[in-house]
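Checklist before submission:
- one chain only
- standard amino acids only
- sequence pasted in full

Submission:
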Amino acid sequence: MSDFSNPTDKPRRNLESNGSDTPDVIQPIHLSVKNKKSRQIGAPASRNRSAMFLAAALIATLLCGVALLTYLSNRPVKMAPQPVKTAAEKKQPPTTANVTSPQSSPSQPVAPSQLAVDKQEAENRLADFLQIKKSIDEIGAQDWGGELYTALDRLNQEADALFINKEYQFAAAKYIEAGEYGRQLFNQADQVFQQLVADGFLALAEDHAEIARDKFAMAVKIRPNDERARRGAQRAENAATVIQLRASGKRHETDGNLALAYADYQEAVRLDPESAKAQEALKRVKGRIAEQQFKQLMSEGLTAYHQQQYQQARQLLSKARKYRPDSKEVQDALIQVDDAMRLARIRSLEKSALLAEKNEDWSKALKLYTDVLKIDGSIKSAVDGKQRSQQRIQLNKRIDFYLQKPDTLASDHYLAKAISLLNTAEQIKPEGPKYQSRLSRFQQLVAEAQVPVKVHIESDNQTEISVYKVGNLGRFDVRELTLRPGIYTVIGARDGFKDVRQELKITSKQQFMRIRIVCSEPI
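Returned file contents:
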């Protein structure tokens, strides 16, 4: 803001009736205002013109006041004038009636030199006033100055009238007083700014878009770079649209069109993120949409549950839980679904395990029963199924051992074990085709292992004969043995000769065998 204490290079207006209203630029001369008696120069016609001028000024002032009060209808800024009076006006209010005009005072001749000095002083005071008025007009004082600005304008008109009538001393006094009013306005601008901003935000909160726009427009004029004022002005520009969007959203919300209501409220918040009403409306419709979604998901989830579509039911109920994480209704429904899914899983596993048993896939059956017991270790059918599967797997492994190594049955020890295993295997029920085939081959193998085969061993009666698994037979020419199917090793030994070793493989298909063992190669 400008400094009004020492104005320099100020414009002035030439208000004398010399046929020209163009302001002359002069150097200011700072003179004190002298108290002089009023002079009456003029005729009755001049008094009539002064009265008419005063009436016109009063009417203009009244019209300006009404317009200003209408403009600031909502919490207007009240500015009461606090003039600093000159010595000639200390006991009089600031109106043209307070100044003794030429028509109401005795005529006192004024020397031309004094008149020139008075005129120069009035012009200087006019220049000071114009500087002040320019500064307050730049911050929009004509819009928010109220009674104080009205008084300033009235004093300006009175001073102009006195200047035109060449009452320079009184004109100078009026210009000084008007300047003091201007300074008061300028000094009160900060206070007015704060109230305008506060009123603007209050108007926004109460949905008075026009008033808010006017308040912030005046505030921005006082402080063009103030962030709060600029932000408020921007909000005020969008206020009417925001109000319309909120109204539209409310209608959609009332009609149950929540999606459209949400779109309107969301746009309102985008235009004015600080609008508490728009934020509240958006939050409310979000809540209603969430409630609607929650109910729909719960309904669909429970329907899927009753249709035994448990996986789908769980997915829907899990989505519903996102809308209400603490809902006991959702928790109970999910527990029911999880129990149903668990039982369904158990049933499915047991069904698959029984099918695996039927197909004699005991390894698969064992895994399936183990999976059931992982879900619920107390299910007896799964416990029995697991035990049954383990027994069959072990039984098949033992039978397969003998089927893959039939020669082991040549041993009395292994034959006894095989016979015991066969007795156990024959008790197993039910018997599937795979098991029957395996058991039949095992039965045949055990039976064949018990049928002896006659073996004739010939020698030279000089060689010591021994048969592994049978014993030392000594020296002989011919010896007959009865041996079970299997692999035997026959060894011949004689002093001074190289030992002879021969493997003897006996099968159940053979009924008789003949071999010769003689040590004939000298060492």
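Reviewer check: Residues 276-306 form the longest helix (31 residues).
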